[in-house]
From TrEMBL, chains A, B, C, D, E, F:
Pfam (any one): PTPS
Name of the molecule in the record: 6-carboxy-5,6,7,8-tetrahydropterin synthase
Gene3D superfamilies, per database record: 6-pyruvoyl tetrahydropterin synthase/QueD (3.30.479.10)
Catalytic reaction list: 7,8-dihydroneopterin 3'-triphosphate + H2O = 6-carboxy-5,6,7,8-tetrahydropterin + triphosphate + acetaldehyde + 2 H(+)
Transmembrane segment boundaries: none
EC number(s) from the headed UniProt entry: 4.1.2.50
InterPro entries tied to this protein: 6-PTP_synth/QueD, 6-PTP_synth/QueD_sf
Family designation: Belongs to the PTPS family. QueD subfamily.
Amino acid sequence: MFNFAFIKLNTIKLKVAITRKEHFNSAHRLHNPKWSNEKNKEIFGKCNNVNYHGHNYDLEVKVIGYVDEETGYVIDTKYLSEIIKSKVLEKFDHKNLNLDVEEFKFLNPTVENIAILVFRLLRPHIEKKYELKIKLYETPRNFVEYPYE
Amino acid sequence: MFNFAFIKLNTIKLKVAITRKEHFNSAHRLHNPKWSNEKNKEIFGKCNNVNYHGHNYDLEVKVIGYVDEETGYVIDTKYLSEIIKSKVLEKFDHKNLNLDVEEFKFLNPTVENIAILVFRLLRPHIEKKYELKIKLYETPRNFVEYPYE
Amino acid sequence: MFNFAFIKLNTIKLKVAITRKEHFNSAHRLHNPKWSNEKNKEIFGKCNNVNYHGHNYDLEVKVIGYVDEETGYVIDTKYLSEIIKSKVLEKFDHKNLNLDVEEFKFLNPTVENIAILVFRLLRPHIEKKYELKIKLYETPRNFVEYPYE
Amino acid sequence: MFNFAFIKLNTIKLKVAITRKEHFNSAHRLHNPKWSNEKNKEIFGKCNNVNYHGHNYDLEVKVIGYVDEETGYVIDTKYLSEIIKSKVLEKFDHKNLNLDVEEFKFLNPTVENIAILVFRLLRPHIEKKYELKIKLYETPRNFVEYPYE
Amino acid sequence: MFNFAFIKLNTIKLKVAITRKEHFNSAHRLHNPKWSNEKNKEIFGKCNNVNYHGHNYDLEVKVIGYVDEETGYVIDTKYLSEIIKSKVLEKFDHKNLNLDVEEFKFLNPTVENIAILVFRLLRPHIEKKYELKIKLYETPRNFVEYPYE
Amino acid sequence: MFNFAFIKLNTIKLKVAITRKEHFNSAHRLHNPKWSNEKNKEIFGKCNNVNYHGHNYDLEVKVIGYVDEETGYVIDTKYLSEIIKSKVLEKFDHKNLNLDVEEFKFLNPTVENIAILVFRLLRPHIEKKYELKIKLYETPRNFVEYPYE
């Protein structure tokens, strides 16, 4: 009986996306070391402030796949939350992105690049059968999505 | 004159999505009756609590189609809201999903499965010319989308 | 120099309130065991559903006092967060308030009574020099504050 | 060294979407001048109120493209914000959409049509290499997306 | 037993506040008919736009009193919600405050004055033993509270 | 007629509070220079990170007074917004609070101390007939209010 009802609900076998939200608080500045200070100031404005500024980043990690018939889960959100904490928050939270995160020593920590890096940090820990998408809010008014499409 | 302006705005005939948000408050527990109590506890953790727990579910129902030239609507959101209330909220709101909702008597009421059921309850009441998508928040930190893509 | 600046900022010695938000997800039903089932249904409506329903409760715990000159804190929010987790969330989160929480076996778990109980659970763990106030959201549209004034 | 790290992060060359949120406050009424007053009232209900009503519109403008290797930006959000302000907010904010916005003199200012118009106002000011998408909230419970797909 | 536990929780008899949120969407303009058009424009700026603009008003109605021992309620929020709907929303929602609401024919519908009027409309329907407080958001960035203190 | 209605609404002459929300993004670290590095780390934990971290601060400035009969305002929120921008945001936004804000060179920039400083920066620019209150969110989960009571 259980199987019947379960299978019935999933006959069309469309994909479901499940998203987990986490957050981290970091300092950063936007700066391209190949440019003069003047050009950096002109392009990045107050985001180039030499002593850094910071944000509460809100991170949404979306995993796309089929619902498992035994669990009713796409993926266990407890696992997802742990992976985000150990691979991303541990590295970014209460840190200076430019100084404390190796990948940003030579890469500008724009919200676009942070989202791409989050994707690369998480991708190896999410099974290949799943798609993975990142949404990252730098402020409630500015956010990025990667990969898009 | 009216027609002209109207037609002009819609020449490209791209699709528009319109979304209506509603909410319901339900009790549930995650449990697979084919498993032992130990396995249920191991897999579902505190979500398996024998006496249930509960959530304020936030539901977004998205309907995708073309804008009607007479009304300027994709679909009347009053109709959409009434259908959600009569077909979904009436069944789920202030209820125990496991005990009071027939479809979950043999199906685990994970947020994934609830979203799929919401889709199935609404689909017959939305004309075939429209696409339908469901987004369901179990908490502000966990949500699903179905169908995805 | 440090002391001077610090003292200067605090000469007026007005109180500061600091608030920490946490959340828990619980099932409950409203029911007065001294009344008939009919009267319970009449008074509590769908909140009286015999199989329970549930909520995502958002809890704000406010502590009011003076800023410590050494730390710049009213109270350490890490301590506050730990106390809320061990004394309140451990007891309420992913539980059935009526069945799993002893205090509600003979007390109706309205949002008013839950807030009063949260206050009583936390008060012994917050030093007497502080005032303590509780704000509890049952839904984003209904919330209580205790004590008020 | 900088180049190496940068290139490494972008080898897959997937698209990134960046979104900027702005808002405007406008009066409007829904009305089709080709219909009788009775039909307008029947179809649009209280939204047809002859003296208008109004909303706080929340507007999200999404630009989709590749990350520039020099800046780490898809597009400069300062530019995006300025374009939204000069081309959309200047026209809609603290205005009556029916009376003060020429395009709505013969077109019903539903949230669908407003979103389509926002798209048309912004598209010429966003380089062709970018995709552009509009999300417009009429209330926190009703919103549209255009183009969808 | 029930009484004992109940009484125990309420021995200190402190007040509890319960708040209900509702919303309405209205058009308005700020204008003092005793002033010249020039002075109105100078003082109220774009809020003086002759054809009106509008807002999604979020209304919080707070009732302060003691918890009833039989119900565990300060006041029944269903009653509170109905009173707000019949006395306030019926009058303001999808209306032009200046033209459709009699009290604003000679009174400037600033968010301050709207909140005072909401208080006066509700006060006769809330028993004298309760205190009543109004919080009214004109936008998510501007809100008033009345009476304050 | 206008006067009559107006006076009628204000006969009780209770106070109204009006609040304006603004935000700023800053880097900071918690550190007491009179303590050893070990003690700083022990007390402030990851908030003591030597290279700083940061936040999106949400600031609410509340002004309490009587409604002016000519304008219907407690205070002009445009003035309030300008004062916040010139006296607070100019100083804090996209800055490092420890390094770029003189007052924090010898004072720990906890959210409590930032709120007190905001109050001191704004108080001289708000007429004495008004009360002034500050609410400052460091994150959506931690906020302070000053002065309290």
